Structure formats: structure tokens, C-alpha cells
């Protein structure tokens, strides 16, 4: 396995002009996805996960500014050179299978249109490949599925269709935005198992956004924890889940035995992107914050085992009530 990451997000900042002022949605975010590995990005609603994926896919909203950073895919800076871009080589599985297909066109035709634009070969080649992909994602009666409209599939089947769409141009990387959130628990499990199998069989890299630590544990080799648009902590999933170091990660995991992110147990609220506090963005809510935490953003501290934590006080114990 090559050491060079397939995808490297380097010190990326994304701002957006809004009516409420400048929204600092991402700030100095770095992460890497090695070939053939699955990396999770976790954080609660509003922490910037979707914006990160949109930056990678080149579909940021109008008015977005990128004041700094780079996104390298297969060694090329795809922010600086969209022509050298990654489209087709990066597949995308969206969050909501109900909203992501146009109801008035056959699902198969919608995927064939993506292939026409981004994959080599004739329509006949594409059809044959799509039937094969429908089988790979375990859609029943793959030939007939080509002729069906979106409403003729269940939610889980539609998510399988979208996974087939994401794979249709032979991507090296698939990015997935909470692809199981809209599904029931049993279907969620099946879709996660499918993604795991396909990634292994096709030596795919996956960048997987989730708010659910259970999903993370089941699927991801490594994790990046985002808080208010900055990286709080990153490292191998098992190590981070077993011994979280950032106060934010520790509180999240301590509050929620089922490991689904919900900040009800942490006092205060997540700041709006237009009103980020100075210094460490978590300091107003942090039980071990010092006055200096309000001064400057804490740089990441490297820890053994390929881990990093953006907190100089990561070795301090949290007070018991905070962990109760
Ligand atoms: N088009 C926009 N206009 C104004 N603010 C925006 C826009 N897009 C995102 N934001 C703000 O940026 C922050 C990050 O949003 P983003 O959707 O990236 O977060 P997220 O972690 O993906 O959330 P969720 O889990 O709810 O999808 C939020 O505070 C959001 O309100």
C-alpha cells in the first residue's frame, strides 16, 4: 500500500458571505485518506461536515470563499486546477435517497447519463456495466431495475441505486454524507455491510461523514472529529474511541453510551458559523478551559500512534460531574 494519501485536505478554510456576516464554516482543516482505507468525519449538526464534502466535490455554494488551503487528489491540487479534476474519480453517496433521484426519469437512465458524461464506452457498454453494478449492490432483478422509476424502489433499494451511481465511473474514492441516516436500523446495517464489502472488493477509499460513533466503529479505520469547523481530534478509530483525548470528544462519548452524537449532555450550544469564539472554539463549553484558551486556536499536538489533538490540556482529567 502506498504511503501517499489518495486524498489530502491541507489546512483548508471555507468561508461564506451571509446576511448575518461572514460564516467561518471550516478553518484550517486537514485530513488524509490513504488508498484502500475508510476515514470517518464525525461531529454534530452544523460542524461543517457537508461543507467539507462539497469542497472536495467542487460544489460549494455560490459566494463561498476559500481563503487558504489545498485539496490534493491523486497528487493534484483540485482546488487550484479544477480541470485536472477529480470528477468521475470521486463517487458521491448522498444523505437522503428519497431526495436524490429525479422522480420523473427512470433511475437507470439517470445513472447512464452520469456514465455518458464521465465514463468511457458506448451506451451498450454502460448498460451492461450498470446491470453488473446493480447485481453487485444486490438489487433484485437487475435487468428489470434498469426500467424502473425511483418510486418503484424502497428506501434501502434507492440507497443501493445511489451506491451503484457512485461506483458507475470507477472511482478511486467514494465520499458518503451520512448515507444511512434516513433508513431504518436493519437497512442501515445492510447498507453499511454493503459499503464495507464493496470497498474491500474494489480497493476503494471511503470518506464517510457521520454523526454516529457506532457507524464509525463499524466502518472506519481512522476518524477526524470536527467541532465548529475545526479539527478537535484525529487518529485511528479504535484508539480515539477507547481513549478520546480532546475534552469535546471525551464528553460526547461519556454522555452517550449509544455513541450517537447529541450535545444535550454538554452545557451551552454550538456557536453559529458567523459568531465563532476566539481561541479554541470549544472553550466556552469546556470544563477544563483556562483563560489562555480564549487567546489563540490551539495547534494540533501529535500523540503516539498517529494521533493528534487540538488541546494543550489533553492529559488533564475532566471533573467527575462533567463525565457523569
Ligand atoms: N449556504 C449557507 N448559508 C449560510 N450558512 C451556511 C450555508 N451552508 C452551511 N452554512 C453554515 O455552516 C455551518 C456548517 O454547515 P454544514 O452543513 O457543513 O454542517 P454539517 O456538519 O454537515 O451539518 P449537518 O449534519 O446538519 O448536515 C452551519 O453553521 C451552517 O449553518
TrEMBL record:
Gene Ontology, cellular component aspect: plasma membrane
UniProtKB keywords: ATP-binding, Cell membrane, Membrane, Nucleotide-binding, Transport
Pfam families membership: ABC_tran, oligo_HPY
All residue ranges annotated as the ABC transporter domain in the record: 7-253
Domain of life: Bacteria
NCBIfam families documented for this protein: oligo_HPY
Family to which this protein belongs: Belongs to the ABC transporter superfamily.
Protein name per its UniProtKB record: ABC transporter ATP-binding protein
Amino acid at each position: 500500500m502506498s504511503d501517499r494519501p489518495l486524498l489530502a485536505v491541507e489546512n483548508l478554510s471555507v468561508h461564506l458571505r451571509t446576511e448575518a456576516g461572514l460564516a467561518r464554516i471550516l478553518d484550517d482543516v486537514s485530513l488524509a485518506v490513504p488508498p484502500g482505507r475508510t476515514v470517518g468525519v464525525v461531529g454534530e449538526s452544523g460542524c461543517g461536515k457537508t461543507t467539507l464534502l462539497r469542497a472536495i466535490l467542487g460544489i460549494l455554494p455560490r459566494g463561498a470563499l476559500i481563503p487558504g488551503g489545498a485539496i490534493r487528489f491523486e497528487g493534484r491540487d483540485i482546488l487550484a486546477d479544477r480541470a485536472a479534476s477529480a470528477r468521475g474519480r470521486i463517487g458521491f453517496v448522498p444523505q437522503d435517497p428519497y431526495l436524490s433521484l429525479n422522480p420523473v426519469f427512470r433511475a437507470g437512465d439517470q445513472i447512464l447519463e452520469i456514465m455518458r458524461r464521465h465514463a468511457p464506452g458506448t451506451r451498450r457498454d454502460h448498460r451492461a456495466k450498470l446491470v453488473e453494478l446493480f447485481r453487485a449492490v444486490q438489487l433484485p432483478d437487475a435487468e428489470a431495475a434498469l426500467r424502473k422509476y425511483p418510486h418503484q424502489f424502497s428506501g434501502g433499494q434507492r440507497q443501493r441505486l445511489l451506491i451503484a451511481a457512485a461506483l458507475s465511473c470507477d472511482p478511486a474514492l467514494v465520499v458518503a454524507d451520512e448515507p444511512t441516516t434516513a433508513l431504518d436500523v436493519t437497512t442501515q446495517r445492510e447498507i453499511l455491510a454493503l459499503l464495507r464489502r464493496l470497498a474491500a472488493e474494489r480497493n476503494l477509499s471511503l470518506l464517510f461523514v457521520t454523526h454516529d460513533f457506532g457507524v464509525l466503529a463499524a466502518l472506519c479505520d481512522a476518524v477526524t472529529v470536527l467541532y465548529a469547523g475545526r479539527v478537535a481530534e484525529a487518529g485511528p478509530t479504535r484508539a480515539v474511541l477507547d481513549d478520546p483525548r480532546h475534552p469535546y470528544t471525551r464528553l460526547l462519548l461519556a454522555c452517550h453510551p449509544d455513541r450517537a452524537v447529541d450535545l444535550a449532555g454538554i452545557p451551552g450550544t454550538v456557536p453559529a458559523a458567523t459568531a465563532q469564539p476566539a481561541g479554541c472554539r470549544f472553550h466556552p463549553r469546556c470544563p477544563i478551559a483556562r483563560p489562555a484558551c480564549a487567546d489563540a486556536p490551539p495547534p494540533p499536538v501529535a500523540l503516539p500512534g498517529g494521533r493528534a489533538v487540538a488541546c494543550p490540556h489533553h492529559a488533564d482529567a475532566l471533573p467527575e460531574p462533567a463525565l457523569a
